[in-house]
Write the structure tokens for this entry.
Amino acid sequence: MLAKKLIPLLILASLLTFAAVAAQAETQYIFPNSNTKHLTWDEVEAWDCEALNIGFNEIWARHGYIFRPGGACYNWFSQQEWYQPITHGDNQHNVLPKASQLEWDNYHLIKEVMKWKRANGLQNKGRHLPMPPVSFDLLSGFQYVPLKTGQTLAVYSAPSARAWRGANGRASVSTSGRVYAYGQENDWMMVMYETNASANAVRVGWINLSQLSGKKSDLPGSVVFGNLPMTLQQTASVTDDPVGMTSMTTLAAGTQVTWLNSFYSNSHMWDYIEFTLNGKVARGFVLSGTLGTETTDTDDWNNG
């Protein structure tokens, strides 16, 4: 009975978290008109240097500039629907000559402002880079986290190196792509990332923060899960991919699991559970409506 009372409260908390996640724009520019009008110093100075780096590279991206794979510009512009990199030639001969004098003027202005900001210790002052658009149905509570690129991290289904690991024990995430995080538990972080764009597949799992290099102060904080004993009321497929819904395993009706939290996307409601898979602890998602309270919970209440 306690579980029945707690679940609505925990679901409400998840809904409030979801409401706090802003909808992402499909197309984002720092300077939408840098190819048609002269920018002013004030317009440019209003952004921090990280955003300005994207801002002046917008000029070249419009002409199909090919950015270094894994770099900040590559990661940013590859998410923009309008970006079409050239398919032949090179940047020096096929991109730079396309820029107009107006675009060159704006390029030099942005570079000048960046130099001035850095010289005066103001590189972090101003509007920050917008959150990049999401290319899949993101779960409630997850947010984009800018990680140091060039790292490949092992991903486990639960926050332990002994937990079950997908992709035949080889699941991993590259920090050169987009990574979204929900929160931390015991120096592990729950992440969501795309595994196969053409197949519309993602994975939700855990990375060990001790293996992550780079700035960590902007990462989401600790999370507390419900940890309620529950029983499957019907046979259910468990997945670590709440978008493509690729199955980790199938659990029979009557299986006892631990309910951790509820998550929501635009298309489904999910219960996040912990269970045992091939002798290892695992976490995954089942569609809401497949769980019920543990039988002894009700018996204890009736006997009271």
Helices lie at 2-19, 41-45, 49-61, 72-77, 91-94, 101-119, 166-169, 295-303. The radius of gyration is 23 Å.
